[in-house]
Amino acid sequence: MTIGKGSAPGKVILSGEHSVVYGYPAVVAAIGLRCDVTATDSTDGLNIIAGDLDRSVSYSSDDISNLLKGKIIHPKLDNIAVAALEMGGSDLQTTIKISSDIPVGAGLGSSAAVSVATICAVADLQNKQPKPEEISRMAFRAEKIAHGTPSGIDNTIATYGGALRFQDGSITRKQIKSNFPMIIVNTEVPRNTKELVTNVRELKDKHPNSVNSVLNSISKLTDEFEKMFDEGALIRMGELFDINQGLLDAIGVGHPKLSELIWKARDLGVLGAKLTGAGGGGCLIALTYNVEEAKKISEKLRSNKLEVYHTEISSAGAIIGDSK
Ligand code: PMV
After folding, report:
1. Site to substitute for ligand 1 among 11, 14, 17, most atoms within 8 A of C-beta
2. Model confidence over 56-109: pLDDT tens digits?
3. Which of 155, 202, 207, 223 is found 20 to 30 A from 34 (Cα to Cα)?
4. How far apart are CA 238 and CA 194, in angstroms?
């Protein structure tokens, strides 16, 4: 049996979520949580086994032609099928098996990581070496299935890893000056990116002056954040996390559970905390002085039965072949 392997990281948006949708910049980083995919030859079409979603599905050849015409066949898994077909061609016969430690639907880029890792596994199966920009472009087409009109930030960071500035589809890769010890807490409140992006757009249509000025402030804050990031100025970055959280609350993407846990993290002495991704639930990130501090505070948060990760920025992006 021939087997192909692929892997890709999850991400956190450090600054610029929502404003990035309107062409403003964002700073995003890959994290240590990853998604691993294997692709094996099959004789019965395209099959997907998603361990993290506890689902297995098969696409018939009719399903595939409908999928490629834009029809939804298996919501939540169609992006994976499209990713596999983008890389392997429309007559691809393979079984895709997913194993991921990135929580699903929590703003950590799980869907883009699966798309990218699938592309890498199929490339490995077919002994191909697509360039990063090709991987990212294919994953973007797959992500459009899952998210409608994504900004492209998730597929980009899942491909390149590390940290980068993203604006209107163009990227600047960032040097990582200090290790960036952070805590991620999952509120476990489900949320939907498409819905939250639509809500912000509707609020902006209703109150253009007010909402545009908040988006503009997030953009200025992101420029400042990028400068602090380049200098490795952790304390300043923490302060900007806190200001950013206020601005995100102002455009309606906060949630009581996010606020509660952000304040809990602040009380425990983090440098700053904010939601990450679309908000409305999902995850928060908090910045700490060092890894020891991150571990200590994570333990305290975990004792409240919360799903907590401590991680740093991970330089590893998409990997074609064995990542272990
Ligand atoms: O929560 P996520 O990982 O889907 O991030 C969404 C980030 C937004 O800026 C809200 C939307 C986007 O496409 O950039």
Report:
1. 17
2. 899 999 999 998 888 899 988 999 999 999 999 989 999 999 999 999 989 999
3. 223
4. 28
